[in-house]
Amino acid sequence: MDSLDAVRRQSVGIIGAGAAGLVTAHTLLQDGFENVQLLTRDKSVGGVWERRRIYPGLSLNNVHGEFCFSSLPMPPPQNQKRLSGGDMCSYMENFADTFLAGKIRFETEVLNIRRAIGSGWELQVQDLRTEVKQVLVYDRVVLCTGGCSEPFIPESLSPDAAVKASFHGLVCHSAEFARHLDRILEDYKATPDYSVLVVGGGKSAQDMSALLTRFGVKVTVVFEKTHAFLAYPIELPAIFRKSRFLSIMASHIELRTRLERFLHTTWLGGKITRAFWDFLTWFSYKSLDIPENSPLRNSHSLFWGVLTNEEGVWRTDSFYALCNEGKIKLIAPARAVKYAGNGKSVLLSNGTEIEVNAVLLATGFGSSWTNIFAPETVNELGIGRHPQLVDVEEHVWDYTSFSNPPASYPCSEEWVSSIYRGIVPARNINHRDFAINGALSTTNNGYAFEVMAHWISSYFLGDKMRLPSSPEEATKVAGRNAAWMRRRFPGMPVCVNQSNNSEVAFWSWPQAMDDLLEDMGVPIMRSGGNWLTWPFKVITPAEIKNLREERCAKREMDLKIVN
Fold first, then answer.
1. Bigger pLDDT: 549 vs 83
2. Peptide bond before 493: cis, by omega within 30 degrees of 0?
3. N or C end of the chain: smaller count of CB under 10 Å?
4. CB of 169 within 8 A of CB of 357?
């Protein structure tokens, strides 16, 4: 094993300059790594919040204070309610300027990742300005490409399909909406009765639809199911929304406390838990005055799902308000099938045709890992999708709160890749030279990315950690977690995009972070409280601000014990 000084002199390549990449680079630098470089194909930092991707009306799901890092406070949002895309973009740029000056290589696309001969990693990259290709070599690599960088576009609705069907209107994915917004508004001004079809019912579809409607554009949204949402007549106190309260009610793969075991393993607790989520769903609909017959009630489940928006209090110009007023037309449940062939219409699954001038595809994202690994590297790391590797019957989680689950998603038998903790490919666990940040799905990415960055730094430094002893053990643990995800989120497509859902701890992110903190040998349940108040203690990034010092102290103690 190399000395700490030798390890810190070794090079680390971080792929991606979104939130996960930025905080990982900062954490490694703070831990003494001397040769850290971020690579991004973008012209500026931010990832999904990169400046060219944001537009007016784009907002963040999280309430203020939930998405930031401990080293840099998040300024209050401009509208005092929700962080906007502009708020997030400015924060990421400020973070990079403050802590990572000279460490980021922009407009550099990673084409291929493969293990170098002997040790380390070779990255074939292309400079997007000069189109020159070269091979970069790093001793260690952290993959931070996230799950929202590679648009998924159904082939039948693609721009090529539109051209073949003689549909000459604009067709673009939501990831490119900001770039095309001016054209849409210009066409709207020049074309009588101009209309736009938005395909999808998620957050991006809602943001785009509301913005265009506020400009006066005629918008129709078609979806099979829309996202669930949280809403309330007044802002919820932080003790409910920023504490462990919702995570306790949601359940985790391990139930650490007596309260969690009561809520999820007893008859009465199970009834209380499901009644709570049913009430929260009803209360959210009620808070936004969603009519009983509205297509907006055709939504995913708050309890069983991972597709949820934080809508908050009623806003007169929100997507939901505009739908209630009839200013946005909704067609659901239905799918956009293909372009009709008459040059101006889209055929829907209900047999109808809708005449539109532009089609915006809010159809989600595919894995950002697909095109950057050769098949042999995928096999070596074990990051490809595969059938369940463990006996499903071995893991039951017969929680009473799990009664009457929805039907399983079609690809559930081909679940997710074997990635330990959503951070390290199980087959590579003993090498300590490759990690992932940003593939764990939570409702508090700022806190989660930062804890994972510390976990990765400890892992690279060779710290004494709670880790599987072998690739086989790591694969078994990852398989158990895959079985948990199948049980906990049976109707969700978490098998579709492993770069976004290699592990899922949606509402239960505090418990998942406790698992990682415990791996590092530092205190868990850090927000404190006594036997009565601990579920309601507000969780903030400040409680992990000194995590580096805690890890250093533990490392020194471990070295003294060895010596």
1. 549
2. no
3. C
4. yes
